[in-house]
Amino acid sequence: MRGHSSGGGEPSPRDDAIHLLARREYSRAELASRLAAKGHEAATIAECLDALAEQGLQSDDRFAENFLRSRILRGQGPLKVRVELERRGLDREVIQRTLVESEQAGQGDWFALAGEALRRRFTGPGESPRERARRERFLASRGFDFDQVRHALEHAWDEDSSSVP
């Protein structure tokens, strides 16, 4: 059979992993879980994932960078991104390094991103305490911290007010 490395016609862990990685990046933990669900032995999964990492075909760093970039485009904050990456089995050091490198590259300006998300969702800061609380909850649910929420509420519409014709 084409694409199968074992003699019994069953795909090898590598075949299954390559098939998954062809569609999108996966963390090591996600791949291990999916390969185990397909019935592969834990020892052969670990061996396969080590080989894929050595060959540069699987990388938790690359997964974290791509994941972070996609979440920034969705307007999600650093708290939510961190939780999602931890849930996908990434090491805290990898997560922290990815967040720091993103900020240093100018991609993770969380204060600006919080303001942008707020502007897209709401036309203004809200007149009543209830409306302002609704905006706070919106940003908090997107994973922004207290300081980012406060900054966004105070400054989200600053630029817009000067550019209104």
TrEMBL record:
InterPro entries tied to this protein: RecX_HTH_1st (IPR053926), RecX_HTH_2nd (IPR053924), RecX_HTH_3rd (IPR053925), Regulatory_RecX (IPR003783), WH-like_DNA-bd_sf (IPR036388)
Principal localisation: cytoplasm
Domain of life: Bacteria
Residue ranges of domain RecX third three-helical in the record: 111-153
Record-level GO BP terms: regulation of DNA repair
Pfam families cross-referenced by the UniProt entry: RecX_HTH1, RecX_HTH2, RecX_HTH3
Keyword list, A-Z: Cytoplasm
Protein's cellular compartments: Cytoplasm
Record domain RecX second three-helical: where: 59-99
HAMAP family attached to this UniProt entry: RecX
Physiological role: Modulates RecA activity.
Designated name of the protein: Regulatory protein RecX
Organism of origin: Halomonas ventosae
Encoding gene per record: recX
